Amino acid sequence: MDPRLAMHQPTDDKGMFQMYQNTAYMGKRVERQSLIVHINANMFSSLTAESGRFDLTLEEDFNIGRASDVYLDNMTSIHLKSPYETGLTAVETQRRMAILLHIDQFKSKMVATDTTSSDSGVDDKYQTHSMSGGIVVTNESRTTSATATGDVVVHRARKNNYICTMNPKKLTRISGTISPLIKDGASASSLSDLLQISGSHATSLFFEFVFVERDE
Description:
By secondary structure, the protein is mainly β.
């Protein structure tokens, strides 16, 4: 070794030269997976009660290999009824302000205030219509058209909307319910207040979920 370099070479407590180490940050690779859930309102057209219940089969098994945080990345819609439609009453606008999604496989930790109290403006008959454990997606459509024909909107495009943490498992189906956020007691709202239920302009919703492995 060049003696001029040895003067600057670090040594350990025994006087032995140490090797220089790379101080560059070496991060672990974080695995991410995406799951897209497509809900077409035509599937509700035969349900007179418009329950909003769905049970969908995945094209292939979705394997969660490690504990992962689940986020809603975005929702994209076409033909979704808008809260800005011309001629709506104040109550009708409120019913369209957001979508409430419950997915059985995602144990959301979201806790909401009581929605069954008469003081909340929600009819006691809808005690099962609870926001807790659900996923709220703001309706960002601004069209004034009654049919929202061809209106494609990306909702809640802000990233990292945390839903829950899931342990390793294999998903083969996605099931749950979808509904308006608010159900009014005076005139109980239904899914058709928010979605165009049937026909060539039936509402389609695409929810994109991102699974991020935890570094544990």
